[in-house]
What we know:
alpha/beta
Amino acid sequence: MAYNILIVEDERHARQYISAFLQDQGYEITEAATYMEAMHALRRGQGDIVLLDIQLPDAYGLTLLDETADWPNRPPVVVITGYGDIDTAVEAMRGGAYDFLQKPVKFQRLLNSLKRLEEIVAMRRELALWRQQQTLDFVGGEGETMRRVLEEARRAAEASVSVLITGETGTGKEVLARFIHKSGPRADKPFVPINCAAVPDTMLESELFGYEAGAFTGATKRKQGLVEVADGGVLFLDEISSMPVDMQAKLLRMLEEREVRRMGGVKWLPVDIQVIAASNRDLKAMIAEGKFREDLYYRLKVLDLHLPPLRERREDIPVLVGFFVRQLAPRMGKQVHDVPPRALEALTAYDWPGNIRELRNAIERALLFCDGDTLELKHLPPEIVR
């Protein structure tokens, strides 16, 4: 099943131009020319990811972020802004947008953003089902390695210590971060994520620490940073390896002193946050290359949680396969109840370079070709049955 992109754009030619490109890339498209059309589409469950233009004929585009803020499964939103509109972009990210694009939209930049958000969509679906069923199978499986990771994660949650989560793309780092948030005393406080790679270097400081009116050109009013927004809760710094070295120094000071000062401000504001950082890169190697601060590394990794790739925890694959079959089959109108040993052996033997996301896609594809109640070896992708 392809991801559905809801394009909210009042300019017909621009909307159709983006739509045609994304359809060529294999995405399903839902179009909305107004705010009301967009809200109707979302209430119908359309749109795994939303591309949201700010200037709409019947409402301010960012109103959509406010109206859907309490939705448990609000799709990730990518905001489209005018060139150089820093103030609006910061407001959008603070309101829950995952990324923003400047007009005219560059297609490669758009694709990069969508690929990152596809993982979030998949992980959120797993998380939602876990909450419904009150099971951790999709995260932990049955292996000792993941049971240990989850036990350490619970301890980190109770103690509110800084955590560094490492692992390849697709292993569920944000899902684990949210599990930590929900497992400790900060569960009823904010969980504020930021993808450090998705924010331009020039905006990262204002995004994290906020700014006072007049701090720079375009700063017409005071803005809280995400550190302040997360006060009392959890700040999740995804792709921390992308943070510039000068910003790493400022983050380190905030972690050590537990206070923040807005750009252009003179007052230090105390903050109480638990910081969880994630990286799919080797930070020790980056330290050796002078690209990551060693003192920040050790400040972040009070607890170091490594999410192993699926090829290193093959014992969990059958449990995950069962989870994805239970999750996906009803949505696709299938009545699949069994996966025989030959199929499970092939799935377990495969190396899964794309980890959980690739496994899910493989099961979805197999279900597409399965017409009975048993998912057979012949239904699996060719690369798995070789």
